[in-house]
Amino acid sequence: MMDNCPICEESGYTRLFTSTDTLYGTTKKPFHVVTCARCGLLRLHPQPSAEDLAQFYPANYWFPGEGLAEKYRRVVLRDHVRFVARALAGCGETGPVLDVGCGGGLFLSLMRERGHRAVGLDFSPNAARIAWKAKGVPAVCASLCEGSPIREGSCAAVTMFHVVEHLYDARPYLDAAREMLAPQGRLIVQVPNADSWQFALFGKNWNGIDIPRHLVNYRARDLAVLLERSGFEIVRRKHFSLRDNPAGFATSAAPRLDPMRRRVRGVKESWQKAVVKDGLYFGLVLASLAPAAIEALFGRGSTIMVEARKKA
Length: 312
Ligand SMILES: [Zn+2]
Description:
This protein is 38% helix and 21% strand. It has helices at residues 50-55, 67-91, 106-113, 125-135, 171-180, 197-202, 220-229, 245-253, 259-264, 271-297, and strands at residues 13-19, 31-36, 42-44, 97-100, 118-122, 139-141, 155-161, 181-192, 216-217, 232-238, 303-310. 40% of the residues are buried.
């Protein structure tokens, strides 16, 4: 059952390509990305076991951030903050924003600076601790669908940024999000876009495929089916993300320059070399702004962000 297509339950598929964890090097095992024979959804097949999967997440996968890196992240996250703030203003609910997969809590701390109440959930106890201690954001190490400490019907918004593609089955999470939301509350979901020009260009080297951590690779239509099935309708869609799309382009084109990849892999380099690499990477991100904006303009940006409300 688990190995069938999580959207249409079809068992037939065609193999698209085989690759391994080229980004963080947590494993050398080969993984196959396949296309569903019926609906065309892309997924890893067979899926790694939960035990194996835990080994594929580097210890510092979520990133606390410090100094210049944190300043940069605050700037590029404003895009996410604005998208959610607009959803909150439009829905008229006043409950808290619940961020699922909150990491070190930077996004929620920016929401709090704008006067919104916020609470975070994360699988990582370390991430939840940092969110509390460094960012003053109430965060709990818990799963949204198993004993979440949040009261049903209380949230003005539930946000899931780059979470859904990591799940074997997104449905219980989306169902739980629906229960947590106030009547007019909004669900905000962001995933990499498997129908993007970046994927067409870079193929298995596109960082949005992130083998073996991304179990399912969604297109806009797949996300719509998924949300519809859990009782949501999409009211707004965006294909550009200032934080993700230009950086995705840069990392796909020159993975060895990516600061997070170098940190996770513990690459030994002199400080001079580190500064040069950081500078080149940042230059590449800047140069990627225009192509990333153009692909988004044609609805083929490398991420999809949607605002959805409960269906009447
Ligand atoms: Zn399918």
